[in-house]
Design goal:
4 copies of one chain form a homotetramer. By secondary structure, chain A is α+β, with helices and mostly antiparallel strands. Chain A contains 16 helices and 26 strands. Chain A folds into 2 domains: about 5-255, 4-Layer Sandwich (Glutamine Phosphoribosylpyrophosphate, subunit 1, domain 1); about 275-470, Rossmann fold. In chain A, helix 9 crosses helix 10 (about 310-325), helix 9 packs across helix 15 and helix 11 packs across helix 13. Chain A starts with a strand and ends in a 21-residue tail after the last helix.
């Protein structure tokens, strides 16, 4: 997963990009980078200065002066990268990438995963093209540089028409910002406008993975970049926003990543045309109908607690709906939403020495129970998904130790059974929790809960459709094993090919 | 504010201290340090190796190997320091401090503020004692080193009897761990036990600012270090836990910091004998009686939202109690707890360029609204306290922009009107929000809210007493201007006196 | 200028390369790097681990452990780079370069300057090849990768046949070490053998810019790599040393850089078939005949002092020969070699604040006079060359201030009048001292000396020929403006084309 | 060994100190520091900003801006420290030290070794004084701070009167520069003047370990600080230079370190009233009489080579005098000074992996032979001293391998038989070369030379007296075992007592 951001015709473009990346920090914490356009007066040519490094945005950009000096300019793009195995030691993989070729400078930021990168790379290898990174994104750059088209936008169109899989891209040339979304529309990408007079009174325009970046900047959400759209943004058109838009080869139907709603995006973001918070709450409500929680026969209220923070909204929806369904006229609520788990947000990269209770410690570093809330109660824990199951199991154990009489577990999405090849970092099928058990009882027994229930696939899709005015199609491959684009399971991480430094 | 931790008779003492500091990270983010005891075989003497630096615990300790090697040993103390103005550039101020004097090595970690440090320092200055730090804690070390007592525990007792103000201390000698709490008991300090066989089957014992550190380590909470108690812990006594306990000169009554309950401590901690979560919830409930929120005449429920995360519990208590009070038999709830503000936990040290909307941006970096929850609603925002008011005002503006019809603000503590001289870092009286207005209407107008209400002083104390089985006395100076220990308002930060490096 | 070193079939190859680079440190102080061959068992493929950074060899390699671990293996190449304007901020330019392409890994270290790099690069630009560095060396890598030959050695032969100018190269493939010298033989490159049993008793073989690297390693000097030779060294042939040798397209005549003898190489090195010390001494002797120093009519001896350390040998030759020529039977020597200038070797990168006496200070930091040697004497200062003249002028002033009665200046090479385009870093023609004056008197007046004399071009060449058993042809372009290979005066430093990081 | 420098009433005092330390770099390469006086307007008090770190002066000061900003002011002192065992890891030991006490700020830079530091420290320990460093210099600071005198200069006089051993000190108070030299005058310290108008036209005055620092700054050498003198320099007196001078308790006779002449000081410095170059040359001349070199019966000249660079001057004196003595009227010289060993000045901190030829490699990294000079010759190697002998032995081996027919070794000082307790870093008696053999033949045999000769003690003293107009007394303890001040052989390095950071 990654977060990408781009802006054109903005005073202080790099600093705005810095704030944009800040809002998208949850999409990738391994590295961050910003590239701007500038003019090198001494050498009389356009350049693209860049600052990129490992770490959070606040780690990489510690000196405010860079925005006035090195990263000056009114156009910029930025990238947050997620930690994926292997590549994390190679600094050359930190995006945005910048190259200079016969048509000028070119920068690129990519969220997603190309499914035909390996084949394309083999072709390049045979013709003697040297690669510098192990990133699939570099393939796009070579396709552009070696394109037989003359105009830069045609070269880019040529290149993005040859790659397959998941790609939300922001490219920057010496005078344009270009946003591209793959025909399936796996990853979100949207357009915003900042009504701040710049460059003869024209507004600035920005592109981001999620709309929360717009809120931080005071930008207005305009629309989604459409699946299969390549939007070419030039300064001249900033006044009207009538940017040129090109269409990649169409696909039978879109396949937007439903897991963005389930877990990945921020609740205060609008993606795929709907607020994440609203969709996530609907998941909880639907689950309340499908898998209600038990009443406490002792007359106490049953306690519904989220695994904070990603499940807060869906747990709230679940609890509210339960009361709506089961509390008859004249009754007090039977269910109460509570904070039974406290999360420590200072976790960072804490090291854990390997050993028998390393896993337990890892969970304890992040969560603690609130005994006063849980003691002698029937507790329903709500989480958005279960991937490996180890954290859940430890949390259940802690909730029991805090005195819970019964522990029920509710998951506001279906069982995860397949890896994602479109940009999400899941473990192998064997490591997925749901694949390790015959049935739901086996799962519940291993987790140590009194009952376990998942949201059904139908419930999931229904929730999404109901909330969303224009129901698009979603990729549910991680829950269903039905991949919209054929995938080639990658072998080992490819070795760095080009490591000058 | 600071977090302190110490442990004796523990396998892997430094790593346990590392986890302890982790749990106490919210008490201080400026610097961290750990000191252990070891034996230098080459030089045939006891030593106290230390690792200390600016940054979070995870920044300072990045290499697991130090726990096996440099910080080996079965006794350790650690310290997290809060950022206070001025001193933050002087690395010599990072605790724990370690000295060697005629009775051996000595390490110290301090949470609090000495009220007679300046006078003591002047006396030392006159006799030619050279100081290395600007910290009031160093005074205690010179008092110990220059004491005319012979036994080390007598030297320490001599020293801590001469200092006044707020001090929860953990000292480490070559063979003892010593916990001290000032007679007023301003800052919390408590004892825990880890039932892990070490050193002929004896358990380990630990001392910490808050009990959440015990939970992380699987330690059992034993008791508070009493106000005015000096507990001397030796390995021999670890089996029974019958440690020698000395009494400092008694004070008329204790004065435990009530702001620890209001804001500072973690909700999952037990301090001053009671769970913070429970007290904080009670603040909300009491406020529900004192200052209820309005019904929505349009038939919708009034939305109660916390300013996350510190007000989550009190807002929950407030909303629940409102429903209990105002919802008659047979009615549905009129108030609903909701998440209307989302907090971004990646904020870190983000830089903001000065300018007109710097303050606004600062708040937007940390919080975003959830429009679907707030639109067309009567919204009650609940916060634990208002210090400068600028964040509140901006949050109110954002909640209005998200479409709230009315905005009411409730504070679960009284107005802050006086600075703290016992270890909390408040601004000057002039900068405090509550001191800038004639009355509550002026405050409400400036904040832009339809109504504003604080918890009364009586309500605050009542809540504390009700929940706490043995009602102790509290310091409420920040709300009442009644200081339990005479304070000398410090002039400018003192200059570093000794700066060899 | 640069220093290059390579070794095959050696235990501890990287550490030996480290020592080799150490001996060649005078050839380049800007950056250093070492690459070895290894096998990545986890990924079952050959790799080329590298360590490269800015700074001296001792700065880049501070941790001995890298030689046992990261840089293990029995084949290695290394590179020292000289500081040239502009490129010094781009870490991607630090050699050796390493790439992976369809035939495996490939590393390269280059000393020299390609004269047709710009044209080749333009061609590559047109076909869409992306460059990562601004170094002309990268062209060779793309020529190899895009060669239509199948065998790796043919690809390399293909590539080096297309480049022109000055290039002494060491390449490393997964199983071979390849040394190449351009047909003119501008830069030295020689073969050595280490009789240390390794790999079934075979000796190691090494290639270096200068023989002083062999002395440090206890290696035996075997022979020069011939101008136009490509020597392919394989482990199997290490026993006999019968390596395959290929011939590049022949050139009319060789053009070995005479400035290597004048200044650049170390006096204890053998290059182009002769000891530098011997040649340099002969320069002094010849100059004694061409431009003798005056007798002191006061009966004292005339003092001959070198500008240390590069002129020590030639000044000694000059003084000795003067006595031989002018001191008749029965006379005491009239001339005495002395140390009148002391050099401070700790200079490093000392900063000088700009201002009127910045230049003077710069010289004073490096040199001081010895008054007792110079006072009331006729002093003859001997230097190897004059490039800008500013240091000379300041030294003359200092020698006069120390009390010298007369100051005469002798240069053991002709006036430098043209820049070098084959790897030496001279200033532009306008900045060269000799081009700024009408005649020798003008030069002497500006320097402030009583007389000034240069070695003649004939004297220079005669000295080289006399000492060298097989007289080769030399490049004297810097003294004569006759360039053996047509040069294209480069415009501004080219911008980095590819800057992923 | 250390180098110290101080300056008063100078524009840009810190930068001048930087250059001064540069000239004194040979006296200590482990760490460097500069302290200035400044006024903190915000806090209305005098301060002493400092920059100190491990490394060469050029490593510690890499940013020119510090001189304009942090280190502004017209008074400064600086220090270069030599690497002595143990303390090199403790940053607190880096000088100058700075403290603040009741009389203001105080900085100190020390060259030498106190012989009663341990006893004084024990006394301080008993009264509870906490130490921060392991340096004997800190004792002086506590003596000043705890003095019962009122005036600062009396406090300092009180303190320096209580310490014994070797100490050349420069102290800086908020308005004075104070130079002190112990009564024996072990280490040099001298006064210079810079005639540059500053502060109402008054000249600047500086104090330095060696006069070479004055040459670099264009300062005039004024005089030595006398043994037992404390010179108090105030700005008011800078016009005339009539500074107050105090006398420490007198000693029977001075004991200036003769090894400063033999090896330590730079040849271009004036110390103890005489040029080092002149004294060192005289050592060579005297040795020529005491221990001449053999003629070459084959008619070739005998070659005299120095071990560069410290022996250059004495070897030159030796060779010149030999010719004067042995070359009769009408004969050509029989002896020729030559460069037979080349020194690589880039050595730095090169690591050598332990093993059988580690020692050999260590020497080869620093020296190489010039075969053309040595082959078939009788060679006389001249060195200033032999400490451990291992380098000499290896050099002899290398000279033989280069073809020398005979190798004779001449040392221009007596055998080193005793350690120095006054600031020089010699090994223990057992490790000293001369103590390991019965007689000179044993030494010669182990070194592998045909003959070995040392300068006699009488010759050494005669040479010093002859050249120096006012013959002072010298400390020759390292050659004679006669210590002018009783020494207490220190046990192990003392542990850091105070390590706040």
């Amino acid at each position: 997963m990654c977060g990408i951001f781009g802006i054109i015709n903005a005073a202080d473009a790099a600093r705005k990009t810095y704030y944009g990346l800040h809002a998208l920090q949850h999409r990738g914490q391994e590295s961050a980078g910003i590239v701007t356009t500038a003019y090198d007066a001494a050498r009389k040519r356009a350049i693209m200065p860049a600052i990129r490094n490992f770490g959070l945005v606040t780690d990489v950009f510690r000196d405010d002066a860079v925005f006035q000096h090195k990263l000056a300019g009114d156009m910029a793009i930025g990238h947050n990268r997620y930690s994926t195995s292997g590549s994390s030691t190679n600094a050359a993989n930190i995006q945005p990438f910048v190259v200079h070729y016969r048509n000028g400078n070119l920068a690129i930021a990519h969220n997603g995963n190309l499914s035909n990168a390996t084949q394309l790379r083999q072709l390049f290898d045979l013709n003697g093209t040297l690669f510098q990174t192990t990133s699939d994104t570099e393939v796009i750059l070579h396709l552009i540089a070696q394109s037989r088209q003359f105009r830069q936008r045609d070269q880019i169109l040529d290149a993005v028409s040859q790659v397959e899989g998941a790609f939300s891209l922001i490219l920057m040339t010496d005078d344009k910002l270009i946003a591209v979304r793959d025909p399936h529309g796996f990853r979100p990408l949207m357009l915003g406008r900042i009504d701040e007079a710049h460059n003869q009174g024209k507004p600035a325009w920005c592109v981001a993975s999620e709309s929360c970046a717009f809120d931080l900047l005071g930008a207005t959400y305009v629309r989604e970049i459409q699946p299969g759209e390549m939007l070419v943004m030039e300064k001249e058109a900033c006044e009207t926003g009538n940017f040129e838009s090109y269409l990649l080869k169409p696909t039978s139907q879109t396949a937007q990543c439903i897991f963005e709603y389930v877990y990945f995006s921020r609740p205060d973001s609008r993606i795929f045309g709907e607020m994440v918070d609203k969709v996530r709450r609907k998941f909880g409500k639907t689950l309340a109908h499908e898998a209600p929680a038990p009443f406490d026969s002792k007359g106490k209220r049953t306690i519904v607690i989220p695994v904070p923070d990603s499940s807060n909204t869906s747990a709230m929806g679940y609890a509210t709906e339960l009361n709506k369904i089961y509390c008859h006229e004249g009754e007090r609520d039977h269910f109460r939403f509570e904070f039974g788990l406290i999360r420590n947000h200072y976790v960072g990269r804490t090291f854990i020495s390997p050993g028998q209770n390393a896993r337990e410690l890892k969970v304890r570093l992040k969560f603690n129970t609130v005994e006063g809330v849980l003691k002698d109660r029937i507790v329903v824990m709500v989480d958005d998904s279960i991937v490996r199951g180890t954290t859940c199991r430890q949390l259940v154990k802690m909730v029991r130790e805090a005195g819970a009489r019964e522990v029920h577990f509710r998951v506001t999405s279906p069982p995860v059974i397949s890896p994602c090849y479109y940009g999400m970092d899941f473990p192998t099928p064997d490591e997925l929790f749901a694949n390790q058990f015959e049935d739901i009882d086996g799962m519940a027994a291993w987790l140590g809960v009194d009952s376990l229930a998942y949201l059904s696939e139908e419930g999931l899709l229904e929730a999404v459709r109901e909330t969303n005015s224009i129901p698009p199609n979603y990729c549910t491959a991680c829950f269903t094993n039905k991949y919209p684009v054929p995938v080639q399971v990658p072998k080992e991480t490819e070795k760095e090919a080009f490591e000058f430094v």
